[in-house]
Design brief:
The protein is of the alpha+beta class. It has a domain of 74 residues: Immunoglobulin-like, CATH 2.60.40. The chain contains one helix and seven strands, in the order αβββββββ. β3 and β4 form a beta hairpin.
């Protein structure tokens, strides 16, 4: 069976036809626009929470530690990286290139629970890992109130 779509004028037809058009076009919109991992400036990030802090894992294979810049400005944590293209020799001939390095920049807003002075970062096997420890919660000792 072949699906034939008629181009109707706006607001022509019943409410059901408008809703049907919305739901037939919506999945294509999500598929084409939102699921593109090739967007510039986008890298996948995993966020984990443990009892003593958070862990951010930025997936960035092929980079060096020196390619990353991590800044903390008040409560805004910014992770960026830029890989310089290697200069090819005069005799090198590129036959096919399917992989290229891109620069990226991701920002995260930290809440007051994070101890910003103890943030640590490491880069191992293509994964930049940031450990964001939680602040120690200081509980005030219970005080006894004397009745006069």
């Amino acid at each position: 069976m072949t699906h034939v779509k008629f181009n109707r004028k706006p607001f022509e037809g019943s409410f059901n036809a408008i809703v049907d058009d919305l739901f037939t076009e919506l999945p294509a919109f999500f598929k084409n626009e939102f699921n593109q991992t090739e967007r510039k400036g986008w890298v996948p990030v995993n966020v984990k929470e443990s009892g003593n802090g958070y862990q951010l894992e930025v997936i960035a294979p092929g980079m060096e530690k020196t390619d990353f810049v991590i800044n903390l400005d008040q409560n805004l944590l910014t992770i960026s990286a830029e890989k310089k293209d290697e200069v090819k020799g005069e005799n090198d001939k590129q036959i096919r290139q399917e992989y290229s390095y891109r620069s990226f920049k991701r920002s995260f807003t930290l809440d007051d629970k994070i101890d910003a002075t103890k943030i640590e970062a490491s880069y191992i096997n293509g994964v930049l890992t940031l450990n964001l420890p939680k602040k120690e919660i200081v509980k005030q000792a219970a005080t006894e109130i004397i009745i006069k």
